[in-house]
């Protein structure tokens, strides 16, 4: 993996990327930096500081919303679940929030609610994720899979093993011919 190399390059480009007038370039930068720094290198504190700098540098809601979604995800990983839900809700409650930010916040909020044991509260989140995926919202390709996996977690946490096995078998059958390796792999791990 080349996350160290990617992070070094991205860190060097931070001032220029955050100062750039193109919001899409800045959003792409945040996505890449978040992936390298947090997902690739597991550096949550550095990730949070980078996201805070992005919000402080940019005065536009799109960047603030996306950064909040990523921050909420880092908080889930740190076990700061209530904070994560509250932060995700600031975006989800804002009518100006774009679809990409909504997707990140919905997936993160759903996971936080499940981890809090609030599985019934996670159901509307999963429904919204599925709705975005069904509408073909840009970037929602895996939203349906995230909702399905969260549903499986809810069934497990609620002790509904018969329903869980039935759902897993249905997903396994549906994914047998899937071209999405990540989706097949995640469901396969769930099946054991």
Q: Could you characterize what this model shows?
A:
With 192 residues, the chain is mainly α. The protein is 80% helix and 0% strand. It has ten helices and no strands. It has helices spanning 3-19, 23-40, 44-57, 61-77, 81-92, 99-115, 119-135, 143-157, 161-175, 181-191. The longest helix is centred in the first third of the chain and has 18 residues, at 23-40.
Attribute tags:
10 helices, mainly alpha, 80% helix
Would you spell out the secondary-structure blueprint of this structure?
Blueprint: H1 3-19, H2 23-40, H3 44-57, H4 61-77, H5 81-92, H6 99-115, H7 119-135, H8 143-157, H9 161-175, H10 181-191
Helix pairs in contact: 1-2, 2-3, 2-4, 3-4, 4-5, 4-6, 5-6, 6-7, 6-8, 7-8, 9-10
Oligomer: single chain
- Count all strands and give the number: 0
- Regions with pLDDT < 50 over 5+ consecutive residues? none
The 3D shape can be described as: globular
Rg calculated over all Cα atoms: 17 Å
Number of helices: 10
Q: Can you write the helix and strand succession as a string?
A: HHHHHHHHHH
* Main sheet record: none
Q: What class do helices, strands and sheet pairing give? A: mainly alpha
Beta-strand residue fraction: under 5%
Separation of termini?
26 Å
Instruction: Name the average pLDDT.
Output: 90
Helix content: over 70%
């Amino acid at each position: 993996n080349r996350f160290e190399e990617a992070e070094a390059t991205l860190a060097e480009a931070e001032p220029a990327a955050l100062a750039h007038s193109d919001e899409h370039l800045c959003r792409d930068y945040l996505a890449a930096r978040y992936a390298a720094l947090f997902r690739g290198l597991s550096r949550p504190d550095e990730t949070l500081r980078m996201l805070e700098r992005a919000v402080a540098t940019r005065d536009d809601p799109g960047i603030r919303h996306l950064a909040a979604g990523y921050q909420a995800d880092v908080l889930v990983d740190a076990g700061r679940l209530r904070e994560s839900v509250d932060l995700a809700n600031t975006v989800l409650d804002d009518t100006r929030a774009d679809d990409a930010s909504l997707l990140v916040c919905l997936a993160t909020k759903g996971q936080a609610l499940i981890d809090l044991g609030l599985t019934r509260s996670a159901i509307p989140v999963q429904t919204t994720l599925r709705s975005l995926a069904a509408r073909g919202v840009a970037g929602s390709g895996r939203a349906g899979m995230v909702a399905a996996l969260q549903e499986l977690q809810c069934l497990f946490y609620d002790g509904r093993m018969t329903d869980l096995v039935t759902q897993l078998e249905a997903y396994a059958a549906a994914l047998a011919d899937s071209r999405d390796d990540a989706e097949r792999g995640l469901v396969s791990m769930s099946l054991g």
